Structures are given as C-alpha cells and as structure tokens.
Amino acid sequence: MISVRSFVIIGQPKIHRFQYLATAFISLLLMGLVYSWSLFADPIQQDFGWDSTQTSFIFTLSMIFMSIGMVVAGILEKHFSRRTLMVATGVLLGGGFIAAAFASNLLTMYVAYGAIASFGSGMGTDVVMATVLKWYPDKSSMASGGMLMGFGMGSFLLSPFVDMLLTTMGWRQTFILLGIAFIVIMVITAAIVHAPSSETERQLRQLVTAGSSKPVHNYRPAQMVGRPAFWYFFIWLILITSGGLALISQAVPAADAVLAVHPIGDAATMSLLATLAMGAVSLCNGFGRLLNGVVWERFGYRASVFGISIMFLASMLISGIAMQVNSYWLIVLGFVLLGLAYGGSMASMASMASEFFGPKHFAINYAISVLELIPSAFIGPMIISSVQQTTGSFITAFWIFLVFGVIGLGLAFIIREPRTPKEMRKAEYARERARKAQEIAVLTQQAALQFSSLHMADSGELYDPAQLRAYRELRKKLARAEYVAQTKPHSRKANVARYERQANQRFEEAAKKAQARAQRDQIRAMRADLQAQRAQLRFARANERAALTERTFRRYALKLARYDADAGTDSDVSAVDGVSTQA
C-alpha cells in the first residue's frame, strides 16, 4: 500500500544526533555506579564495624531518592534550562559522594549517599534522557534502551576500576575521586547535550507523522495516572522489579550458598565465581535494556511485555531448581535470564511513557513511572532477606517470586495502549483531517500545474500522451491519499483489493473530469483572448476617432481665426491653439 510519505517529499537537511546519544550513554554509565553499593559496602562495614542489615538500608534509600529525584527533575524542567539542571545534577551527585567520604556515622552515610547522591543520580538520568529523546522521536524505544543500557552496565564495566581504587586508595579517597569525576562529566554533558531547535524538532516529528498513520496523543501526568493502562503496567513493573532488586541485593550470597555445597576449586576460585555470577546479572541487566528497546521498536509492546514476563518466570523457576540441586551453572543461567528481564522492565518504563502517553510530557511521566521502584525496593529485598534469615535458604524466596511471575504473565494479557479520551480524539481527528486536507490541496495544486503543461494538438482535441500519463499517475496517488484519509487503520490490510479497485476507478473518473475541465479552461482562455483582441481593436478605433475629432476642431478653429482677422477682430491664433490643445 502506498502511504502519503511515499509521494509527499519533504526536503530536510542532514541532522547529526548520534553524538548526543553517545554522550548520554557515557554520563549514565557513570551515574549507574549508584547501583553498585555492594562494591562499597564491605570496606565501609569493615571500617565502621557495621553489619549488612544496617548498610542494606542505604541501597533501599538510594532507590527511593532516585525515584524522587526523577519526579523533581520532571517538574523543574518547566522552570529551568536543561543545562542548568545537568550542572545541578553534577553538583548534587558529586557533592553527595564527597560528603559521604567524610562520614563518621551511619546517619551521615544515609543522608550523603542514600539521599543526596541518589537524588542527583535520579535528576541526571531524567534530564539527560528527556533531552536526548527529543532527537529520536522516530526511534524513542531504541534510544532509551541504549541510554539505560549504560546505566545498567555501569557497575559491571566500572567495577574493576572502582575495585582497584578501593584496594589502592581506600574508600574515602575513592569517593572523593568519583565525586569530582561526576561533577566534571555532568558539566561536559551540559556543554554538549542540548534540546533541538523548534525547526529541527518539527522536522524530526515529521519522521513519525509521515511514516505512521497512528496518531500521537500527549497525556498530561494527571491524565496518565487516570488511565487503567498505566496502573496495569505499574503493577506489572512492581512484580518484575521486586524480583530483580531482590536478586541484585543477594546475588553473591546465593551463589556462595550453592558453591558451599558443591565447591568448585579453592576459596579464591569460588569467590571469583560468585563475583562472576553477580557480574552476569549486571551485564545482562544492561544488555536487556537495549534488547527490550529493539524488540519494542520492531515488534511492539506486546512482544516486549510477554518476553520479559516469560524470562522472569523462567529465571525464578531455574534459580529455584538450581538451589534445590545445588548447581552453580544452572543458577548462573537463572541469573542471566533475570538480568535480561529486569533490564527489559527498566527500559520498558521509558518506552511506555513515550509510546503510550506521548513525548511532550515524557520527563514527568517517566519520573512518575519510576516511582514503582519505591515499593519494589521494599518488597523484593525484604522478602528474600527475611526468608533467608528464617529458613537459612533462598529456595522459598524464589518460589514466592515465581508466583509474582505468574501474576505478571497474567497482567501481560490485559496490558494494552490507553484508549484516547473523547475530547482528545475529537481534537486529534480535526488535526488529522486538516493535515490530510492540506496534503490533498498540495497534490491538487501539483495536478493543476500538470494541466498547465498539457496542450492540445492542431486538431484541438488530443492531449500530449506523456503529459496525460503523468497526470493520471498523480491523480492515482491523490485518490489513494483520499482513501487512506477516510479508512480506519485496522481495516486497511483487509481491504487491499477493494482499495485498489476504488483507487483505479477514482483516478479514471478524475482523469475524464480533468480532461473536460481542461477543455473548458482552454475554451475559456481562447474566448478571453478573443475578447481581449476585440477590446484592443475597439480601443484603437476610439483613439483614431479622438485624433480625427481633434484635427477637425483645429481646422475649424483656424478658419474662425481667419474670419476674425478679416473682420478686424484682435484674435490670438496661439490662444486658439492652446484651447484646442486643452480640448
């Protein structure tokens, strides 16, 4: 089927936008270190003598304040420039790490790392993503997945470097160095990344509107939270994210529990294998975000949601069986699937906020969606830690999360795009009709220009065949554009044959009518030319009569002057000439 984009050509300059995506990937890669609290927990616990129960709450606080930071960033973007917010993000994030380096008690660590640094990380993630996604309205899911891949893989890619710093410099100097790096990176990001101009954004939007017949509806936050589709997706995210956060917080102890029963190598080897299991979760967490963006972009939201639900269900089943039989490689497989599912769920939040509820209010809508991390950060780690303390094993926790997966798979069947409110449908319908009318007007104008090049042969009856064929092709495209404007999207594929017949009939009828109109126009033009020639002839004759009248008047005036001279009257012939000239 030929779409409007196939024959309405819009000239656009080449738009360079990859540098913004690459810069955002690097900045989010560094901000993803907030996820890596487990890297810093051991040396801090050894330094202060704290236990894991006290320090694990810092990770929960990080998830909470990261979500709050995103919401605040979405609100502040309406009042401050994005570059100002990026610099403020660097100050908060870097300042939080530097303040944590001078912490002397648990409360200071809660405030500095758990609140200030995480709040800055949430602000930076929201601002950077909202800015860069304005450059990718046609590939929003893939772009958001690529950026979030950096955020998810930060702990995996940077953990060797951070671990080296912790070993050589200590955790306090490492925090100071990382804080300075955060400030520098965010200042550089603010200098490079900016929103497109209004003209560039209009050209980018045409990539979406011209390439798809699906209308884009922009929901305000109040409208979004009032739609059932949002709450179905929100609950589904809580179920998947709870299991992901639970395993991220206890991946190394779970792997150690398996290796304790069936050891592989010496103690150093088992410690390395447990760390690799955690690395597999982090690596797949990042890769799953990009994979989900590609799947959502290519196959739609249903394939993405079902794929994540099935992987989460399979990961919990495999991990539970691995704990039963104490198989290290089987639990690594479960970790891999869970990392893909958890990373995909994180990326699906951005895709849902952009695709379901429109790009205009993406920053605040995405921030509201990320609030699901708050209950998830409590539910998941609380279940797995309490089960482990009560039973001494993680098996029951995996079965509980398996039930979460079954419920999530059931929700996947009822998650669908929101139905557009009535007033938005009316406004969108009016805009769509106006746009189609404008396109048809452009095509009609092109047809008129084609008519101007048609000419009749000497007999006055035949058109130039080449020009007539070009006109017929243009009329065929016009008929198809009219049909697309009047046909509902879901019925196009089922009516291709009927559409083709109607299109052929329309352009044949239009061609016949156009020929008749062209003949009438040519006849009118010939009549107009004839009338113009007659008017010119009448004007020439009027000028001749005027000249003759003037010569006659002068002749009689001269005779009158002679009579006056013979009679002795003092008459000035020149005066007579002046009167005649005025006459």
Task: Give the arrangement of secondary structure elements.
Layout: H1 18-31, H2 37-48, H3 52-76, H4 82-101, H5 106-133, H6 140-169, H7 171-192, H8 198-209, H9 221-225, H10 228-261, H11 267-299, H12 301-325, H13 328-355, H14 362-370, H15 373-391, H16 395-414, H17 422-453, H18 465-486, H19 496-566, H20 573-582
Subcellular location: Cell membrane
Protein name: Sugar phosphate permease
Coiled coil: 504-543
Task: Characterise the protein shown here.
It is a single chain. With 583 residues, the chain is an all-alpha fold. 81% of the residues lie in helices and 0% in strands. The protein contains 20 helices and no strands. The longest helix has 71 residues. The N terminus and C terminus are likely disordered.
H/E topology pattern: HHHHHHHHHHHHHHHHHHHH
CATH topology of the largest domain: Growth Hormone, Chain: A
Write the CATH architecture name of the largest domain.
Up-down Bundle
Structural class, from secondary structure content?
A: mainly alpha
CATH superfamily of the largest domain: MFS general substrate transporter like domains
The count of helical stretches stands at: 20
What is the 3D form? Answer: elongated
| Number of DSSP E strands | 0
Q: What's the story with the biggest beta sheet?
A: none
Q: Count structural domains.
A: 3
Strand composition percent = under 5%
Distance between the termini: 75 Å
CATH class of the largest domain: Mainly Alpha
Kindly state the percentage of residues in helix: over 70%
Overall pLDDT score? 77
Main location: membrane
Subcellular location: Cell membrane
Protein name: Sugar phosphate permease
GO molecular function: transmembrane transporter activity
